[in-house]
Amino acid sequence: MIELEGLTKRFGAKTAVDNLSFQVRPGVVTGFLGPNGAGKSTTMRMMLDLDNPTSGTVRIDGKHYRDLPEPLKHIGALLDAKSMHGGRSAYNNLLCLAQSNRIPERRVSEVLDLVGLTSVAKKKSKGFSLGMGQRLGIASALLGDPEILMFDEPVNGLDPEGIHWIRNLMKRLASEGRTIFVSSHLMSEMALTADHLIVIGQGRLLADLSMADFIHQNSRSYVRLRSPQQERLKDVLHEAGITAVGVPATGTLEIDGVGPERLGELAAQHQIVLHELSPQRASLEEAFMRMTAQSVEYHAHAPGSPGAAPAPGMASDNPARPDDVPAWGAGFDANRKGGE
């Protein structure tokens, strides 16, 4: 188990992590989400004593990371796949880690085979592709067969087969009772992998709950109906005290608060043909965007939208200089020719 209590990290006047407290429990895959700049990487670095907190504590199975004997046997982590020594082979990179943590050498071959790098074990890691580097980093996390595993963007650079493999690996390890903590910006992948979510924004805890509860609490669910007898259907719904909102663009009706079973039975009772009866539930991405809307630090703007930078050659609504002051370099060609 990983336990954070009042964890805070400041860099000068900037508070990167603000009084963060939560637990990462064994037996489930816990996703760690937040917008860019939310403090996720800083939090994970403090878990491994790579950064010292300004205040608060992090404990790994009741101990600080620095107090763990042979730490790779307790917790394995992939934070930066590029941290491997490029001049060493994949095998020797892992061998150095194994020897420093009293891990048998045979384990090196085992994890290389597990991540699919046996055929390139003797090649220098500096020639590895991004996906191969990720696999090597995952191998280093698995090396000590730890009970706790942390992954920061583990699918980065992996091909579809690799993504499927790491997803199933994390689920299998969690089913064995291990603690799995994974950070990713790929919402579609996180939705398929995580059982529980920790969400932070601007360094503060926003949510600590199951995947299902997170989506339910931060999104709208409704039932969509489409029928060639739409006007009659609307009358039947109205008589039943059900409010239906028409969507002209799709020719459908949207209904909140009533299950599809009830709506289907009602249509059948009145012999109304339905071409569509579909429950609509928000995705993890939609729920995440709604929860973190006020915590996004870096906003992008579409061209022409308020706050967007003017296109090249176009005037700004808020010019930084008066119009009668020439831009830097203006008249250069004329001045150059006059001096020839």
Describe the overall structure:
The protein has 340 residues and is α/β, with parallel strands linked by helices. The protein contains eleven helices and 13 strands. A six-stranded mixed beta sheet has the order 5-6-7-3-8-9, with helices on both faces. Strands 11-12-10-13 form a four-stranded antiparallel beta sheet, with helices on one face. Helix 5 links the parallel strand 6 and strand 7. Helix 2 packs across helix 3, helix 3 packs across helix 4 and helix 7 packs across helix 10. The longest helix has 16 residues. The termini are far apart. About 6% of the residues have low confidence.
Summarize the structure.
With 340 residues, this protein is an alpha/beta fold. It has eleven helices and 13 strands.
